[in-house]
Amino acid sequence: MSNPPTPTAIHVRGLEKSFKELHVLRGVDLEVARGSIFALLGSNGAGKTTLVRILSTLLKADAGTAKVNGFDVAAQAAGVRGSISLTGQFAAVDGILSGRENLVLVARLWHLKNPGAVADDLLRRFSLTEAASRRAATYSGGMRRRLDIAMSLVADPPVVFLDEPTAGLDPQARIEVWQAVRTLAQGGTTVLLTTQYLEEAEQLADRIAILHQGRVIVDGTLEELRRLLPPAKVEYVEKQPSLEDVFLAVVGN
Amino acid sequence: MATHVLSDTAVLTGRTLRHVTRSLDTIITTAITPIAMMLMFVYVFGGAVDTGPVPYVNYMLPGILLITIASGIAYTAMRLMTDMQGGIFERFQSMPIARSSVLWAHVLTSVAANVISLVLVVGVAFLIGFRPDAGVTGWLGAAGLLVLFTLALTWIAVIPGLTAKTVDGASAFSYPLIFLPVISSAFVPTATMPGPVRAFAENQPVTSVIDTLRNLLTGQPAGPGLWTALAWCAGILAVAYVLATVVYRRKVA
After folding, report:
1. What membrane topology was assigned to this protein in its record (chain B) (predicted)?
2. Distance of residue B93 Cα from the nearest chain A Cα, in angstroms
3. Are residues B87 and A106, on separate chains, in Cβ contact within 8 Å?
4. What is the pTM of this model?
5. What is the pLDDT of residues B56-111, one digit of tens each?
6. Measured distance CA(B120)–CA(B126) in Å, rounded
7. Could you say which of A65, B73, B119, B187 is the most buried, measured as most Cβ atoms within 10 Å of its Cβ?
8. Does residue A2 carry a pLDDT above 70?
């Protein structure tokens, strides 16, 4: 798969998508720089998953354009699929296969030369070596999600979509996943993650966009987002406005 | 990408076959009901049925085999539905693999699982006195017809497998198929049935398949029913395949 040099890993312009009368996306614009972690924040039903599904070619947009790694999602779907991996909200692992078999399966489907070695390497990186031969159905929630993310990295794709990667995980498992995401970005992978946990965006993201009622209403670094609020005047509170304050203020509740 | 259809299908079939071999209970469940029916018909009702000089077990085995297939494909639909619901399906769809291989893997696995069940049932039939006179061509012909029938029913099963929301929904379609052989020449010669029932029994698809199987297994010429049987199987296969493909296209957008 050729890798056309583009400054942005993900480029979205005027993206629209409706399900019957429900206008989920009403003109989304987005730019994600290569090698960055980009967090897409939004409440339930804001359209985060719809956007990710369009970017990963699972869904067709009604209007607008989207390019991933230089490939148009509508016209060059195969090129997009060769550039991405998707980790959905529900851990997409095969519970009947062992952790290692899951990884070998994905490596074979990517037509890699040495599926077993790729699997063993990822098991080590995600601390799953001991559980490698156990069926994935017996894994804890955090282990499943780690395996899920590991499966997304088998082919070392330049762009990774993580759709609510820590939804439903306990705090310990969440920290494990965060660590995995940071490791990814250090290796130069572009990560687009959706989340409704504001702390997650604060912890991980280089840039944050807030998706609300089908549009990106704010897009910037955490610092830029904080500056959106007027500085506190007379208060003696040392605490800076948290991202949560910013979110609720711009969303308008 | 087209060059990968075969290897992708092979890899994915290996995966679904593992699902079957790791839940052998599904095969045993598939085989046990027809075996129980066979024992009941042979030892309870069989004495009251006049099938001429043909031993009753020889007479009714073809019907039992079709019931075995009809109950086996319920698991095909369930395996497919589990994939659809679990997120692993979306993972495959977002990868650069041949789109059709996901479905074909399930179809080939369905044929393999049904063949195992059929062998079990035929084995028990031998134990209780089934003595076919078929030669090699007769056996090959019977096996070919059974595989064709399995393929036709499997493609029917793909449709609820793709669309059902619950396990019950995915398997409910198979109940009428399981009972179809009862209103046919499978267990009782149709001559004893009252007019409308007899008309249905003699003209429904299963009867021609059963008559042809019976002829092949008893070492007789396949008979004129062969072409009717092949036409029914091919027709059902074609219609179900087209419908399933349309549903699949819609699902994968």
Report:
1. Multi-pass membrane protein
2. 7
3. no
4. 0.83
5. 888 889 999 999 999 899 999 999 998 888 888 888 888 888 888 999 999 999 99
6. 10
7. B73
8. no
Q: Give the count of beta carbons closer than 10 Å to the beta carbon of residue B45.
A: 13
For B131-171, write each residue's pLDDT tens digit: 888 788 889 999 999 999 999 999 999 999 998 888 888 88
Minimum CA–CA partner of A152 in chain B: B91
Q: Which residue of A has its CA nearest to B9?
A: A109
CB A192 within 8 A of CB A214: no
Span B187-244, pLDDT tens digits: 888 878 888 888 888 888 888 899 899 888 888 887 788 888 899 999 999 999 999 9
Instruction: Give CA–CA dist B126/B53, Å, rounded.
Output: 18
**Of residues B152, B176, B180, B157, the one with CA closest to residue B78:** B157
Name the architecture of domain A8-93+148-170+181-251.
3-Layer(aba) Sandwich (3.40)
- DSSP alpha helices (H): ranges in B187-224? 195-203, 205-217
Q: Do B7 and A111 touch (CB under 8 A)?
A: yes
Cβ-proximal residues to B8 (8 Å cutoff; 6+ apart), any chain:
A109, B97, B98, B101
pLDDT above 80 (res A211): yes
Can you give the pLDDT at residue B1? 47
Nearest CB to A91 within list B8, B87, B92: B87
Q: What ipTM was reported for this prediction? A: 0.83
- In chain A, which residues fall in CATH 3.40.50.300? 8-93+148-170+181-251
Q: How high is the pLDDT of residue B157? A: 93
Distance CA A67, CA A171 (A): 34
Whether the Cβ atoms of residue A251 and residue A210 lie closer than 8 Å to each other: yes
Number of domains in chain B: 1
Looking at the predicted structure, is the pLDDT value of residue A1 above 50? Answer: no
Q: How far apart are CA B248 and CA B156, in angstroms?
A: 13
Gap between the Cα atoms of B1 and B248, Å rounded: 19
Cα–Cα distance for residue pair A191/A161, rounded to 1 Å:
6
Match 């035929």 to its residue by tokens.
B122
Boundaries of domain holding B81:
2-252
Contact A111 B252 (CB under 8 A): no
